[in-house]
Amino acid sequence: MKLLILVALFGLSVAQHNPQYKHGRTSIVHLFEWRWADIAEECERYLAPNGFGGIQISPPNDHIILNDPWRPWYQRYQPIGYNLCSRSGSEAELKDMITRCNNVGVNIYVDVVINHMCGAGGGAGTHSSCGSYFNANNKDFPTVPYSAWDFNDGKCYTGSGNIDNYNDINQVRNCRLVGLLDLALEKDYARSKVVDFMNKLIDLGVAGFRVDACKHMWPGDLQVMYGKLKDLNTKWFSSGSRPFIYQEVIDLGGEPITASEYTGLGRVTEFKYGAKLGTVFRKWNNEKLRYLVNWGEGWGMMSSGNALVFVDNHDNQRGHGAGGASILTFWDPRLYKMAVGFMLAHPYGVTRVMSSFRWDRNFVNGVDKNDWIGPPSYSDGSTKPVPINPDSTCGDGWVCEHRWRQIRNMVIFRNVVEGQQLSLWWDNGNNQIAFSRGDRGFIVINNDDWDLDETLNTGLPNGTYCDVISGQKEGTSCTGKQVTVGGDGRAHFKISSQEEDPFVAIHINTKL
Ligand code: AAO
Questions:
Q1: Quick one: pLDDT band at residue 14, thresholds 50, 70, 90?
Q2: In 3-state terms, what secondary structure has residue 30?
Q3: Residue 441: which of 368, 344, 374, 369 has the closest Cα?
Q4: Sign of torsion over alpha carbons 198, 204, 205, 210
Q5: Which residues of 382-451 form beta strands (DSSP E)?
Q6: What lines the ligand 1 site, CB under 6 Å?
Q7: How far, in Å, from the CA of 177 to the mean position of ligand 1?
Q8: Residue 15 pLDDT
Q9: 468 to 112, 125, 224, 483: CA distances (angstroms)
Q10: Fewer beta carbons within 10 Å, N or C terminal of the chain?
């Protein structure tokens, strides 16, 4: 009996680590600030045909509207209530999007902001995305409803009421993160409101949640709330499927709160991944690609089964959150494509690809004064649609990294090699590396300042393969480089250090 209970508990906790992907897909794309109507289209016309597993969407609930600065992206991290009208669209549009994406096998993961409501200085009025009245001065959020009872201030002992010291666990969890009104989630009432909100989304068909600011919530409170979540909607998921949970905890070391306090509850965002990978690809601190031979746990990261990984996210691509200057983004496209390619080829973690919008950066003493700028918008503040150009890139300031050939093709590569061991590692002792994923895929990267010219064991069956970085297989022909693998599994690779993309990737589905 005891054993049965243990198995049941273990099964439950493991289930919350499972992305519940459909059709053997393996990656999430964060469509940061996209409108629901555009996401629905993108699922049908692009994400499903190209094997994307799911989408992280921006917070869908009622949020503050700010004028100073004008409509910053981060207003969506200041909830006013849990009604589902946001900068990305109405509840009807959200529902239509979730349905259409599920129907083509693409999961939706919702970024949920449950630690807090708007900033203490948010004022009073109806300046919210649903147009609902609130009063931040007396902590009145009538649509939930929350009142002063539901907030933590009585338990915070800093003079400012804010988190002043990350070395004090109580401050981090009971005080206000950058002045945001901090919910008292040890109370059944507040918990029930959060659970109702998340369960409503589950009913609509979402597959799970990116839980914002988990460092600032007590793991025990989260455990109770996660335990009250419904199973996923059986219209699209097999019965008994638990919602996927990945928690935002920034743990770069050096603070008393660690990611490991949360890994029993679900996955955790591994922030060391992008910070260290950026350092390696930039060759800072004498780092070399060859050191990636034991990438993952060997680099002091959490175990693969607990990790949600990414090269950059919506915060650290613009100097918010953490990670620092090493973070690679679309602003450094050549290194970025290589780093994302490496991430998608490597078996560690559940992978998330970023899809951004461009903004006018304005660096003053190394700090971007325009880090607040919101998505491409009309003068009334409403978000612009994502137009698709004839060459399949996006217009109007939408970067769409997920549509870059090199990145999209590596998302497919990851699906093809799923479950295969990393093997046949090769390096030149410096910044040229290669490895296979069993007998299904092989990648070679040259980040040295000289050419790579090597014959390597690929582990693949003999034949001619099409490189998915310089081009791809189209019908029976190849628009990129061709690689000939002999009966002994060996193939010759030549990658000039001057190439636009100095890496090559082949997999069994690109055999010509
Ligand atoms: C806005 C304004 C504020 C204003 C506030 C209220 O910018 O000036 O006071 O409204 O009116 C986003 C924006 C915020 C914005 C907020 C609300 O980023 O600028 O505030 O919406 O609109 C911490 C949290 C982490 C959080 C991150 C930004 O732990 O959870 O800050 N990320 C999430 C979201 C994010 C969002 C929120 C949370 C809030 O992804 O988009 O904020 O919903 C240390 C700690 C980290 C801490 C960072 C940053 O990191 O470890 O936990 O993250 O500091 O404060 C080295 C260290 C590293 C350290 C880092 C930075 O790298 O190794 O550990 O330095 O010091």
A1: low
A2: strand
A3: 344
A4: negative
A5: 422-427, 432-437, 441-446
A6: 74, 77-78, 113, 119, 121, 166, 177-180, 212-213, 215, 248, 250, 252, 255, 315, 320-322, 324
A7: 7
A8: 72
A9: 35, 53, 45, 11
A10: N
Taking each helix axis from N to C end, the angle separating 333-345 and 271-282, rounded to the nearest 10 degrees, works out to 130
User: In this structure, are strands 432-437 and 422-427 parallel, antiparallel, or unpaired?
Assistant: antiparallel
Predicted confidence at residue 168, as pLDDT, reads 98
> Is residue 226 within 8 Å of residue 208, measured between CB atoms?
no
Residues with Cβ within 8 Å of 356's Cβ and at least 6 positions away in sequence, in order, are 32, 314, 317, 329, 330, 399, 401
* Residues with a known catalytic role: 212, 248
Q: How far is the CA of 319 from the centre of ligand 1 (A)?
A: 10
**pTM (2 d.p.):** 0.97
Tell me the average pLDDT across 395-421.
98
Residue 8 confidence (pLDDT): 45
CB atoms within 10 A of CB 194: 21
Would the pLDDT of 9 be above 60?
no
**Band (7; pLDDT cuts 50, 70, 90):** very low
**What average pLDDT is seen over the chain?**
96
Question: For residue 507, with 0-12 CB atoms within 10 Å meaning exposed, 13-18 middle and 19 or more buried, which class applies?
Answer: buried
Which pLDDT tens digit goes with each residue over 319-362?
998 878 999 999 999 999 999 999 999 999 999 999 999 999 99
Q: 307, 260 in Cβ contact below 8 A?
A: no
Most ligand 1 atoms within 8 A of CB, residue of 134, 250, 312, 369 to mutate: 250
Q: How many CA atoms lie within 13 A of 77 on its CB side?
A: 19
Give burial (CB, 10 Å; 0-12/13-18/19+) of 210: buried
Q: Please, are residues 483 and 436 in contact by the beta-carbon 8 Å criterion?
A: no
Helix (H), strand (E) at residue 355: strand 350-355
Closest residue (by CA) to atom 2 of ligand 1? 178
The residue with tokens 């909100």 is: 197
The mean pLDDT value for 117-137 works out to 98
Query: CA 423, CA 493: separation in Å to the nearest integer?
Result: 18
Rg (CA), the chain: 23
Give residue 317's pLDDT band: very low, low, confident or very high (50, 70, 90).
Answer: very high
If you measure from the C-alpha of residue 40 to the centroid of ligand 1, how many angstroms do you get, rounded to a whole number? 30
Q: What does the pLDDT average to over 116-130?
A: 98
Residue closest to 54 by CA, chosen among 159, 205, 193: 205
Do 44 and 100 touch, CB atoms closer than 8 A? yes
Distance 486 CA to ligand 1 centre (A): 52
CA distance 408 to 388: 16
Ligand 1: nearest atom to the Cα of 216: 29
